[in-house]
Specification:
The complex is a heterodimer.
Chain A lengths: L1 E5 L8 H14 L4 E5 L5 H5 L9 H6 L5 H4 L1 E2 L5 E4 L8 H6 L7 H6 L8 E5 L6 H9 L2 E6 L3 H16 L7 E9 L4 H13 L7 E3 L2 H4 L1 H4 L3 H4 L4 H16 L1
Chain B lengths: L5 E4 L6 H11 L2 E3 L3 E9 L4 H4 L2 E8 L2 E8 L5 E7 L14 H10 L5 E16 L5 E12 L8 E11 L4 H14 L3 E2 L4 H8 L21 H18 L1 H5 L4 H20 L6 H17 L1 H18 L10 H22 L2 H15 L18 H21 L7 H20 L6 H40 L5 H32 L2 H11 L5 H6 L31
Antiparallel strand pairs in B: 1-9, 1-10, 2-7, 3-4, 3-7, 4-5, 5-6, 7-8, 8-9
Helix pairs in contact in B: 6-8, 6-12, 8-9, 8-10, 8-14, 9-12, 10-11, 13-14, 13-17, 14-15, 15-16
Classes of the chains: A alpha/beta, B alpha+beta.
Chain lengths: 247, 563
């Protein structure tokens, strides 16, 4: 089982759309896939029409009172399951703080389902927190959406610096890619060219800013499920192909 | 946990459109476009999966192909799935995954073969909740056995399947209740697998190489011998096609084991058929054994290659590769010679004559011109033959000292194998547990003797190949050295087996074993059987005919075909 965190320090960068569409494409290709919506806003859960509710909340999960197995919901798509968000996840750092080995809880929770899935996508809440440290520890790779702007590029440097401080993330691969790209804006084009020079780890695939992506909330399903030939859907497919080859 | 799929049979004349209407009026659901899928049930020729209570289904839906592992002992529920890229065959063709994990220990070196193909035309109704989220899937299936070269298309029972969505168990219950009220459904009592096999005219698990002949102790010995030989011949014939097509190496192996056992039965069940007939068929089966040998040798060395390679020091392993290339390069040629032999008039007439002989009636009454044992009860003949072979084994074995030449051990191996075959052929005439123990005991001795001989044969064969490779100019000094090292390792193993012989034989030649043989195969102590055959004086507790499948040759991979 490989675990991929879809992560950004910054919000609103296309993180949830990426997690949802990557998970969908992975499952469509035959992988037994789980997407875990860790963001209390529950956008990924909403996209799959599942109620954002976990009985007993994050507390029941962390205490072992409720196993992940009990909480997993099948989506409308073959081989693709979802662990729904719960509003209590907003207090996750407080809960983690009180646990033994507070940075290893997430990985520990996923142990029992290791044989059941080939891939797990974590839709992570933004910010650097105890929760994100758990994600860094548990994940094999971090997929990091970047809007091609100076500010956004700084967050990548911040993330790199943070990960460099702690050698325990040795196996973690950071895979940034450009998201919400507007090719008609010279700033986007220039920034992309400049960052590609500085960050060799940047993936080649990029996701355009596209109206169909925004309509995922209307359709309440992954983009390739309702508009497979849309330009953004094709971009997600290219991103998945690249991610798969890296994994 | 996810609840299991619920299957119901649909009445034969049921109109799917009408059923779909009833479902839609009972439940909030949408119907998807009709789908057609092709599935194939796969198993090894010897039904290794079925015997383990499983079925393997290769499902193709559009571009997606996957393998599904069904638990037949639990209603055919799918316990593992794995996507599939290449056509299924040998285990190595399958990437790691949950199905491979289950399959590997069962399949071994056999190939997965398609047993029957099923076509499924399905309407899918998705039952939705308030968020229009799918909570249950209902499939209305029309099933059929797909026609192929050997059989026509056949209708299979139509099913309604309620497929749960994980995490929506309550919704499944609710839908099942509503459907129960709306439709009169009969729960499917078994997985579709069984109907598909029956329609294809297949009997899963029917092939077996175990010598499980149900003999009647009072039966004429010639009739019982024919029953045994006919069973062996069925096994032999069952493997001809797979051997010709070289589907996997076990077909040839089983064919040769059946041939070897046939030759042994012909010689060892003495005096039941006229001598000229026995001599004729013995010679013809010896020919069969001989023409199938070279291909089997190549199979054995190719199967053993990884082990042979690993027995060398790491630095020499790559040097051995030309040996594999050499074996591979002769493979097609030997296989085509084998195919030719199996298509030859010689083989066809052997099959025809042998079956005619075996199916011919035995005399109803004995006449003075009968071979001496033909009219005796099989139990009497079996007792005598096993006793005499056991005595011979002890005599030969006790005569072997540390100074005895290898030929004496080879001879002992033949005797031991004959004894084992006799016990296996006649196992239904004796108490099951006792006999099984003795067969096992003989196997320990046989393994030691087999190792001694096979390692020598292998070493000499490899030395011979090395010379041929050198003469053909296909191998350099490094390869010659690595093969020399291998030959040396094999001879060392042979010496180890030789050193262990005395102790192994002593473990067989014990008071307990002698007493057991005496008790089991002494005619006087089995007067019940003697009385049954109208020959014995006093009654005693005696043979209880039982079934026994102990001791199959299928695990015997050595190429010792000396019997």
């Amino acid at each position: 089982m490989k675990i991929i965190g879809v992560y950004s320090i910054k919000g609103g960068v296309g993180k949830t759309s990426t997690a949802v569409n990557m998970a969908y494409l992975a499952a469509a290709e035959g992988n037994r896939t789980l997407i875990w919506d860790l963001d209390p806003q529950g956008a990924a859960t909403y996209y799959f029409r599942v109620k954002p509710k976990v009985k007993g909340g994050g507390k029941a999960l962390l205490s072992g009172k409720r196993e992940l197995d009990d909480v997993i919901k099948g989506t409308d798509f073959d081989r693709l399951d979802l662990l729904p968000a719960d509003f209590s996840y907003r207090n996750m750092d407080i809960l983690l703080e009180g646990a033994k080995r507070p940075t290893r809880q997430l990985g520990h929770l996923m142990r029992p389902i290791r044989r059941e899935y080939d891939l797990v996508f974590l839709d992570c809440p933004p910010s650097i927190s105890l929760m994100s440290e758990n994600i860094f520890r548990a994940a094999d790779a971090l997929l990091v959406p970047l809007i091609p702007s100076t500010l956004s590029a700084r967050t990548l440097t911040q993330l790199d610096d943070f990960l460099d401080q702690d050698r325990s993330h040795g196996k973690l691969r950071v895979l940034p890619f450009f998201s919400m790209v507007d090719a008609s804006r010279p700033l986007h084009v220039d920034t992309m060219a400049r960052l590609a020079e500085q960050h060799k780890e940047l993936l080649a695939a990029s996701i355009p800013q596209a109206p169909e992506v925004e309509r995922m909330g209307v359709h309440r399903m992954p983009l390739p499920a309702y508009a497979p030939s849309d330009v953004a859907a094709r971009a997600y497919l290219a991103l998945w192909a690249e991610l798969r080859s890296v994994l | 946990m996810n609840p299991a799929t619920r299957d119901f049979w649909l009445p034969e004349a049921a109109e799917q459109a009408a059923i779909s209407d009833s479902i839609r009026s009972a439940l909030h659901c949408v119907e998807e476009a009709e789908t057609e899928t092709r599935s194939r049930y796969l198993d090894s020729f010897d039904w290794a999966l079925y015997r383990a209570g499983a079925a393997l289904l290769e499902q193709t839906t559009g571009q997606h192909r996957e393998l599904a592992w069904l638990d037949l002992r639990n209603g055919g529920v799918i316990v593992a799935r794995q996507p599939l890229e290449n056509a299924p065959g040998f285990i190595d063709a399958l990437p790691p995954g949950p199905v491979r994990t289950l399959l590997e220990p069962l399949l071994g070196i056999r190939r997965l073969l398609p047993m029957a193909s099923v076509g499924v035309r399905a309407r899918t109704l998705r039952v939705l909740n308030d968020d229009d989220k799918t909570v249950v899937r209902i499939l209305l299936e029309e099933n059929s056995l797909v026609a192929d070269a050997t059989r026509p298309r056949r209708e299979l029972p139509a099913r309604l399947r309620m497929i749960p969505v994980r995490g929506y168990a309550r919704e499944l219950e609710h839908a099942a209740r509503r459907l129960g009220q709306a439709l009169n459904l009969t729960p499917a009592d078994e997985p579709l697998f069984h109907a598909a096999m029956a329609a294809a005219g297949l009997m899963p698990g029917a092939y077996s190489t175990s010598l499980d002949y149900q003999l009647d102790p009072g039966q004429r010995a010639d009739a019982a011998a024919k029953q045994i030989l006919l069973g062996l011949f069925d096994t032999l014939e069952a493997n001809v096609d797979g051997t010709r097509r070289n589907l996997d190496s076990e077909f040839l192996h089983d064919l040769r084991v059946a041939t070897r056992r046939t030759r042994s039965a012909l010689s060892q069940i003495k005096g039941v058929f006229p001598a000229p007939i026995v001599d004729d068929f013995k010679a013809r089966f010896a020919w069969l054994q001989q023409v199938t040998g070279p291909m089997r040798d190549l199979d054995v060395y190719l199967l053993d290659y990884p082990g042979l390679r690993d027995s060398l020091p790491r630095a020499m392993r790559d040097d051995l590769e030309p040996l594999r290339d050499w074996l591979g390069s002769h493979y097609a040629e030997e296989q085509s010679k084998l195919v030719e032999a199996l298509g030859s008039p010689q083989f066809l007439s052997l099959r025809r004559d042998w079956r005619a002989f075996l199916q011919g009636a035995v005399p109803a009454t004995s006449t003075p011109t009968d071979p001496e044992n033909a009219g005796r009860s099989i139990k009497t003949v079996a007792d005598r033959r096993i006793r005499s072979m056991f005595k011979r084994l002890l005599r030969e074995g006790r005569a072997i000292t540390d100074a005895s030449p290898a030929a004496e051990l080879h001879e002992l191996r033949k005797t031991c194998k004959k004894l084992r075959y006799l016990m296996e052929f006649f196992q239904s005439l004796y108490p099951k547990g006792e006999l099984r123990r003795l067969i096992k005991q003989s196997k320990v001795l046989l393994d030691n003797l087999g190792e001694f001989q096979d390692l020598e044969v292998q070493a000499l064969y490899l030395a011979d190949i090395a010379k041929r490779m050198y003469a053909e100019g296909g191998a350099g000094a490094a390869t010659m050295l690595s093969m020399g090292a291998l030959v040396n390792t094999l001879f060392e193993g042979q010496q180890r087996a030789r050193a262990e012989f005395a102790q192994t034989f002593a473990g067989f030649d014990t008071d307990a074993n002698r007493a057991a043989f005496d008790a089991l195969f002494s005619a006087r102590k089995h007067a019940v059987v003697a009385a049954y055959s109208g020959a014995g004086p006093d009654a005693d507790s005696g043979a209880r005919p039982g079934t026994n499948s102990a001791g199959s040759d299928s695990a015997n991979r050595g190429n010792g075909d000396s019997v």
